[in-house]
Write a structure and sequence with these properties.
The protein has helices at 38-51, 72-83, 96-105, 137-140, 146-158, and strands spanning 2-7, 11-18, 21-29, 61-66, 90-95, 110-115, 119-124, 129-131. With 169 residues, the protein is of the alpha/beta class. It has a domain at 2-112: 2-Layer Sandwich (Nucleotidyltransferase, domain 5). Strand 1 (2-7) and strand 2 form a beta hairpin. Helix 1 (38-51) crosses helix 2 (72-83).
Length: 169
């Protein structure tokens, strides 16, 4: 069986597949190797997967696409955490932007975007991300993300850019 994970900093969607058929899908909190330790990731997964009766030993391939997985050090942290549970699986850990590109474009060249709590875009050649603009994060950039839109909404309210009826009298 294959297990595919799409992890942002807010949530992770997990889908268990058997011959391209969805067997089970679950959600956990999001994992970010910048903020979470290997032990934390493994323990949080174990707690949820035990309750959800995830068949660890039947998973032979695990594809994890996650936020902030931009180098081997970050990928290794996630891989080690997952290997504690999925001992019989071959584990591939990649950046969430590659996962978005594969899901959006398949094996064709194209443009892929992530628009969620964070945002990012890339050019994809059908196999690899070939170009993307540096993501400056929610503090400086991240245009189109939930953080950016929320900040714009709060600013517009306090700068009184909404209709006057929206404000207390």
């Amino acid at each position: 069986m294959k297990l595919v994970a799409d992890s942002g900093s807010t949530k992770t969607d997990w889908v268990l597949l058997d011959k391209q058929e969805i067997v089970k899908s679950i959600n956990t909190i999001g994992f970010n190797p910048l903020y979470h330790s290997e032990a934390f990731i493994a323990e949080e997964c174990r707690k949820v997967f035990d309750v959800e009766e995830m068949p660890y030993s039947e998973v032979t391939e695990l594809f994890y696409y996650g936020a902030s997985v931009w180098d081997e050090e970050k990928a290794a942290k996630i891989r080690r955490a997952l290997a504690q549970l999925f001992r019989h699986a071959e584990i591939e850990v990649e950046h969430d932007l590659l996962g978005a590109a594969r899901a959006t474009c398949g094996r064709e060249a194209g443009v892929a975007c992530i628009i969620g709590t964070g945002s990012n875009t890339c050019l994809f050649d059908g196999s690899n991300v070939t170009d993307n603009v540096t993501n400056l994060g929610y503090f400086v950039g991240d245009e189109g993300s939930g953080a950016h839109l929320g900040k714009a909404l709060v600013k517009a309210y306090f700068y009184r850019n909404f209709p006057l009826r929206w404000y207390p009298r």
